[in-house]
Design a protein that fits this description.
The complex is a heterodimer of chains A (about 190) and B (about 550). By secondary structure, chain A is of the alpha+beta class. Chain A has 4 helices and 10 strands. The longest helix of chain A has 21 residues. Chain A is elongated. Chain B has a 5-stranded antiparallel beta sheet with strand order 2-1-5-4-3. Chain B has a 5-stranded mixed beta sheet with strand order 7-9-10-12-11. The N terminus of chain B is likely disordered. Classes of the chains: A alpha+beta (about 190), B alpha+beta (about 550). Chains A and B meet through helix 1, strand 1, strand 2, helix 2 and strand 5 of A and helix 3, helix 4, helix 5, strand 3 and strand 4 of B.
Chain lengths: ~190, ~550
Amino acid sequence: MRRPGRCPRRLILVAAALLASGCGITPAETTVAGDPPIARSTSQPTVVYFVKQGKLTSVTRPGLPGVPEYSLQQLLEGPNDIERARGLGSRAARVDTGSDIQVNRSPDGGTLSVWGLEEKGLGLAQIVCTGTAIPGVQRVIVQGRGIPVLHAQSPGTGDTTPDVVYIDPLTGQSLKGSRPYTCSDFAKYLDG
Amino acid sequence: MTVTKGRAEPDHSPRTSRFAALRPLVAVLTRAAGRVRTVAGRARALKRGAGAPNRRGGLSLWRAGLRLRLVAGFVVVAVLSSAAASCIAYFLIQRSMIDRTQANVIGEFKNTLGRSVPADMEAWSSGFSSPGISYLQQLKSALSVQGRYDVKLAQVRDGNIFFFPDFDTRYGVDLPGDFVQMARGNTVYRRIDHRGTPFLLVGGQVYGERRADGTYRPTPIMGFVIVSLAREADDLRTLARVLVIANVATVVVAVVFALVAARGVLGPVRRLGRAAHDLGEGRLDTRVEVLGRDELADLARTFNRTAGALEGTVAELRAMEESSRRFVADVSHELRTPLTAITALTDTLADKDVSAADRETAGPLVTEGIRRLGTLVEHLIEISRLDSGTAALVPDDLNVGEAVAACLAPRGWAGRVEIDGPPDLMARIDPRRFDVIMANLVGNALKHGAPPVVVRFRQEANGDVPGVTLTVTDHGPGIPRWLLPLVFDRFVKLDRARASSEGSGLGLAIARANVELHGGVVNVVNDEPRGAVFTVWLPLGEDA
C-alpha cells in the first residue's frame, strides 16, 4: 500500500504544478501571426532640387502622408543610386550643430523656417527651391546654427500653438534667421 | 406453558439447526457493536506499546470512522468536480481573453501600419530632420493607441535593422533579438514576462505592393508595439480568486451535506450497534425502531426479526430445560411415594411385635407397592426410550378388531368394554405399541370415567393418507376443562395427592408418544354430557 500510495501524491504534485503554471498569462515563444503589414497609403509626390553641373535640377520623390515638408529630409539624404548615375549631386549639407535639422512653418503656412542646413550658394538655392516646391510655401528662412526652444505664444494674440524660438548656442541670444528667400532669388542656378 | 421432552423431541434437530444459523448472525452483530471498543482498545494497546506493531504507521482513512470516510468522499467528489469545472472554465476564459486581446492588438497594428506607411517609402541614410521625426511621431502615436502601448520603430537599411531613438518608453521592455529578426517578413507576436508583468510584443516589417507587377516588396519601416497585459492578468487573478472562493464554498457545503448524510446513516447504525451489543449482553428483548424505507430500515427489520427469533428460541430452550428439570423432580417424587409406603410396610414387617394378621395384611401391600414401582420404572424406561428416539417401530399386518379384543381380554376388561367396528379392517401397525396405546386409553377410561366404555374404530382418511380412527368413549363426568390441554402431559393427574396410589401419570403421555411414533394423532374432547372421548387416528401403513 505504501509504494502505490506515493504515485497519486506525485501525480497530485504534478497536476498542481501544471495548474499553477497554467494560471495567469504565461510567456509564449515568438509566433508568426500571418502576413506582414501591407502598406496601403498613397504618398504625395515631393519635388527635391539636386545639382547637376552647377545647375539646379528637380526630381520627383515619393513623399510621406501628412508631412509635406518631408522633401527637406529627402534633400538631406541626397540623390539615390539612380539619380547619382544620372550625374546628380547635392551641395546642401547639415551644419554640425549636434542637433536635428528643424523645419517649421509659420502659422499661416506661407513661410518655412529651416535651421541647421547650409546657408550659402548652391546649397542655399537647393533648400529654398525645395522648400518653395512644397505646396503652400512661398518663402523660406534659413539659419545654420541654433537650438530650438519651445515657448508659448504671448498671451493676447489668440494663437495657442507654441512658437519655436532659436537660441544661438555660442551667445545664448535668440536668433532671427536670414531674410525670407524665394526660389526666384536663385534664378541664376536654374536652367533656362 | 408446559413443554414436554416428548413433544420437543421430534423437531429437535431442525430447531437446533435454526439456532445454529442464528449464531453467526448474532456473532456478527455483536462484533459490529464491539468494533468501536475494539479499535479504541487497539489504540490503547498501541499507546502502551503492548499491541502488535502497526505496519502501516499513519492513520489510514479506512480505519477512521464511517463519518470521516463519508465526509472525505463527499468532499473529494465535490472538490474534484468543482475544481474540474473551475479549471475548465478558467482555461477557456483565459484562452479566449488572451486570444481576443492578441487578435485585437495584431489587427490594429497591421491596420495602422498599412494606413500610415506609403508603399514606396525609402530608407533614411543620414541624420534626422524634424519632418522625418514628426512622421515617426505620427506613426508612433497612431500605433500606440492614445499612448496605451509602447512603440518602437526601426528601419531596415542595407540588410541591417536600425532602431529609431525612443522618445518616451513607459515599460522599459527590450525587444529580444530573435524576435526582431523574425519580424522581418512576417507579423510576429510573443508574450514575455517583464518584472512580473506579462507583456505582448507584436512586430512586423511593412511590405508594399509594387504597382507595376503586383509583387510585394519590403519597405524599410519596421514597427513594434509592446502591450502590457497587466489588466488581463488582473482580470484572470480576480477570476481565479472568485473560483477559489467558490470552491471553498463548495467544500463547506459538501462538508455540511456529508455531515447531514452521515448523521442519517450513522444514527441508525449506531442504534443498531447499541442494540446488537445489548443483544449480545443477553438483553434478548432489545429491538430497534424502524424508520424510513431504506436499506438501514431493512437491516433494522432483519435485526428485529432475528432478535425475536432468538428470544423465542431461547425461551423455548429455557422452557424445555425447565420442563426436564420438573420431570426429574416429578420422577423423584413419583418414585419416592411408593418407596415411602413400602419402607413403612417393611418396617412393620421387621417389627417382632407385629401380629401375624398385620403381617398378612402388609405382605400383599408391599407386593402391590413394588409392583407399582416396577410399572412406574417400566413406564419411565419406555418414555425415555421414546424421548431419546431409540424406540423402533416394528409394524405388522394387524386386524384392528382382533387387536383391540386381544388387548382387552388378558386385562380382564373384555366384559366392561364394548367394541364397535368393521371386523375385517386391516392396518400395518406395531402390535405391541398398539396394545400399549389401547391399554392406556381404555385403562384410563375405566379408571376415571364411568361405564359403559365404548371402543369404536373405522377406516378414515386424514387428508390424502388412509388411516384408521379409534375412539374410546366413557360415560363418566368428563375431564375438567383446565385439564383438557394438559391431559397428555407427564405426571398430570386429576388429583395429585390421591392419585399417588393410582397409575404412574405417564400412561397417556406414553400413548401419545406411541401414536406420534406411528405418524398418527391423538386428542381428547368432552362429549357433553356423556364423558370424555379420546380419538386416535393412525395411518393404515404402506402395505395395508
